Amino acid sequence: MAYDAENNVEHKDATPRSGSADHHEKEEAPMVEALDDDPVYSYKEQRKIIGRVDRRLITVAGIIYMNSLMDRSNLPNAGIAGMNVDLGMVTGFRYSAVALVFFITYTFLQPPATILTRKIGPRPFLSGICFAWGVVMVGFGFVQDWVVLIPLRLLLGLFEAGYFPGIVYLISTWYSRYDMHKRYAGFYCLGLVASGLGGILAFGVQQMDGLGGLEGWRWIFIIFGLMTVAASFLGMIFLVDFPDVAIDKNHWKFISRDEIAFIMRRIAKDRNDASSEKFNFRRWAAAGKDWKLWVFAMQFFSLTTQAYALAFFLPIILNTNMGFSVALSQLLTAPPYAGAGIVMFLCAWVGDRYHMRAPLLLFTASLGLIGLPLLAYAEAVGARYFGCFLICAASNGGIPTVMAYQANNIRGQWKRAFASATLVGFGGLGGIAGSTVFRSQDAPQYIPGIWVCIGLNILIVCTTVMNTIIFRKQNAKADRGEVVLEGEASFRYTI
């Protein structure tokens, strides 16, 4: 059997092997359980196996995340559809306060989420919390006082807190390092579709105004909540378990035990952390000593701050800054997200194909540094709207890149769990910052918020350059045998 390092796949040898093949596999991947009659798959067969995992894991995970993003970010659509006036949220900081409180519970309850995902299991835990926040979202449609929105948003944050870190951790256990970027992009792109189409869907649902004696903005919450409840049942049926757990279960029909063993053997060859490690709180918490995790988290914070600022305020900016009608403002939120999806997949393909991450972050940050001044200072409405395209591509296009950048440069199951929680936790902080970046008193130009976003893109550039310099030096030392990176002699940092 030959091994293709570039694509991280096995190929059948032209000459059949003797019975010693199984022994050879044990030596190459000691962390993977040996199986009787362990098959060796052709390249085509291997891609089919991985494709089945993609359809089962990435598609379902993305659909649930799509509902998650729509539920947390449909506030501006409901706001301009009449909620702000009906509930008296047009004065002071009421709207910003309601948007912000979600991230209090969302941020601080994320660290234990990866542990619970592992202990309870992805299917019952992630699907269960999805059902819970769907029910909460339906409750938004019956609020009579804006103050009631605050505890509901806190509950929404509590239940949604477990999903993103849990699913990011789960995905990282099924794929090798240079398959991850495309998978994160595919998963996140479905959420991006939600951000783009949420406004169009909200506009359609708003036409139910008066049905059942309820205003159109109330139906936005009710319909979106019912969609989330339906997605939770989809997750309960189709979400997969961790590969080292799934291999011991007999009820998986879409993939065999031997095929899961191939997945684990593949990961073991790539980074040698396919098997589970016994949970140890000290070992889990000790991952926090690694400076890299905090740099990646800060980059993620910088990107999510901008992404959430757009999610919460783009319809409002289109309405107040560019003068579009309420209906047109909702509809025009879609094209920038479609453009961001193209940039995201382009980055994912290039990143996995050429095993690079940092140059792509520099590219997306540069888009933001061009788009933000256009939004702030361009006189033509078309130029300002084009600036929204670039800002959206910069923030949303960079998010899967940072997720893959981090996942490629760490090892170990529980370190991966800690890192996922840290990354997404800082994403929650980005949500808090993003909900306050474009203040009502700064309308319609929002100059202070735009300069905050410019500074965040500069921070991404600086930290990426710093990482590149340090990683290159560490890789060179590892090549000379002076250091062992991440506890594995063959491991090298991805630049």
TrEMBL record:
<protein>
    <recommendedName>
        <fullName>Major facilitator superfamily (MFS) profile domain-containing protein</fullName>
    </recommendedName>
</protein>
<feature type="transmembrane region" description="Helical">
    <location>
        <begin position="449"/>
        <end position="471"/>
    </location>
</feature>
<feature type="transmembrane region" description="Helical">
    <location>
        <begin position="217"/>
        <end position="240"/>
    </location>
</feature>
<feature type="transmembrane region" description="Helical">
    <location>
        <begin position="125"/>
        <end position="144"/>
    </location>
</feature>
<feature type="transmembrane region" description="Helical">
    <location>
        <begin position="358"/>
        <end position="378"/>
    </location>
</feature>
<feature type="transmembrane region" description="Helical">
    <location>
        <begin position="334"/>
        <end position="351"/>
    </location>
</feature>
<keyword id="KW-0812">Transmembrane</keyword>
<dbReference type="GO" id="GO:0016020">
    <property type="term" value="C:membrane"/>
</dbReference>
<feature type="domain" description="Major facilitator superfamily (MFS) profile">
    <location>
        <begin position="57"/>
        <end position="475"/>
    </location>
</feature>
<dbReference type="InterPro" id="IPR020846">
    <property type="entry name" value="MFS_dom"/>
</dbReference>
<keyword id="KW-0813">Transport</keyword>
<keyword id="KW-0472">Membrane</keyword>
<feature type="compositionally biased region" description="Basic and acidic residues">
    <location>
        <begin position="8"/>
        <end position="27"/>
    </location>
</feature>
<feature type="transmembrane region" description="Helical">
    <location>
        <begin position="150"/>
        <end position="172"/>
    </location>
</feature>
<feature type="transmembrane region" description="Helical">
    <location>
        <begin position="93"/>
        <end position="113"/>
    </location>
</feature>
<feature type="transmembrane region" description="Helical">
    <location>
        <begin position="417"/>
        <end position="437"/>
    </location>
</feature>
<dbReference type="InterPro" id="IPR011701">
    <property type="entry name" value="MFS"/>
</dbReference>
<feature type="transmembrane region" description="Helical">
    <location>
        <begin position="184"/>
        <end position="205"/>
    </location>
</feature>
<dbReference type="InterPro" id="IPR036259">
    <property type="entry name" value="MFS_trans_sf"/>
</dbReference>
<keyword id="KW-1133">Transmembrane helix</keyword>
<feature type="transmembrane region" description="Helical">
    <location>
        <begin position="293"/>
        <end position="314"/>
    </location>
</feature>
<feature type="region of interest" description="Disordered">
    <location>
        <begin position="1"/>
        <end position="27"/>
    </location>
</feature>
<dbReference type="Pfam" id="PF07690">
    <property type="entry name" value="MFS_1"/>
</dbReference>
<dbReference type="GO" id="GO:0022857">
    <property type="term" value="F:transmembrane transporter activity"/>
</dbReference>
<feature type="transmembrane region" description="Helical">
    <location>
        <begin position="384"/>
        <end position="405"/>
    </location>
</feature>
